Amino acid sequence: MEPLSVAGILLAVVGPTASGKSDLALFLAERLGGEIVNCDSLQVYRGFDIGTAKVIDEKVPHHLFDILSPSDLFTAGEYARRAAAVIAEIASRGKTPVLAGGTGFYLRALLEGLAPAPERNERLREKLEARYPRRLHRLLKRLDPAAAARIHPHDKPKLIRAIEVCVATRRRVTDVLAEGRRGLTGFTVTKFALNPPRAALYNRIDRRTKSMFERGLVSEVHALLDQGVRPEAKPFEAPGYTEALAVVRGSTTEAAAIESAARRTRQYAKRQMTWFRKEQGVTWLAGFGDDPQIQAQAKQISENATADKRR
Predict the structure, then answer these.
(1) Residue 284: which H helix or E strand, with range?
(2) CATH for 76
């Protein structure tokens, strides 16, 4: 990704699922002349709407939603390239880009950049997929002992990617990743992370999960399958969709699916919080994104950042 020369303000609203990121992002975009840019790895897929809590409000322009078919592969690097181009275009029109989403790796890839790495080799991947993780770990240990020490022996996706990079570059993946990264430049970035009380967040997750099934999540999955989307498609791995797919197949009840989906979503929210606590330069907001006090606080901070930029 080439550095950008367009100067401007970039707002980013992140946090755990169900914390109200879309609400806060829309509030800021409406009041600050902004446009929303998706930073969620599932909301890029067409047809996956109910289970991703996808909200596209016509009051402001939205970007990078519904841009892929469910079978498309999409990497953090590709997201960073597309998002950088969209952000530059928004800023060139005098508008404020407002990132919204909970995929921390996408945010980091955009802002900090990724080390240059080769594209996926599907033929090699098929061969590696047929091996047990521990055999892959032993192979990586021969190719790059340092990388093998960092990656868990059972983490098959990371093992495959590390071996793939070693084979393609004929170098250690550790050395490849150590090369310089090129991230987004030319923008003053203000990052908000929502941090509502955990008990309240989990309660909201439980209620939202139940509501998704009541609003037709199982029917949505039925429709996707009827359209030819394969059950192995990446979005079906997400909490809610995995369970709805099981209901369609008759291997579980809807009540059990709701309970399982809510539990997995709570676990996912916990991982998101762990990730964002490691993010640098974050302004933490102790509440939900639809709370008027939280919205007013974020608006004031954003206006101050804009004023500082203009001085």
Answers:
(1) strand 282-285
(2) 3.40.50.300
Query: Which pLDDT belongs to residue 136?
Result: 96
In tens, the pLDDT along 18-66 reads 999 999 999 999 999 999 999 999 999 999 999 999 988 889 999 999 9
Q: What does the alpha-carbon distance between residue 237 and residue 88 come to, in Å, rounded to a whole number?
A: 32
Question: Which residues face 100 on adjacent strands?
Answer: 13, 38
171 lies in the same domain as 186? no
Contact 269, 201 (CB under 8 A): yes
Q: What is the mean pLDDT of residues 244-254?
A: 97
Cα angle, residue 285 at apex, residues 281 and 291 outer, rounded to 5°: 150
The domain of 259 spans 8-114+181-310
Q: What is the three-class DSSP state of 54?
A: coil
Helices (H) and strands (E) in the chain, counts: 13, 6
Which residues sit opposite 37 in a β-bridge?
63, 99
Same domain? For 268 and 190 the reply is: yes
Question: Where does the pLDDT of residue 241 fall: very low under 50, low under 70, confident under 90, or very high at 90 and above?
Answer: very high
Neighbours of 135 (CB within 10 A): 13
Residues 188 and 290 in one domain: yes
Q: How far apart are CA 151 and CA 88, in angstroms?
A: 36
Task: For residue 301, give the amino acid letter.
Answer: I
Q: What's the CA dihedral at 182, 278, 19, 12 to 10 degrees?
A: -30
The answer to whether the CB of 19 falls within 8 A of the CB of 287 is no
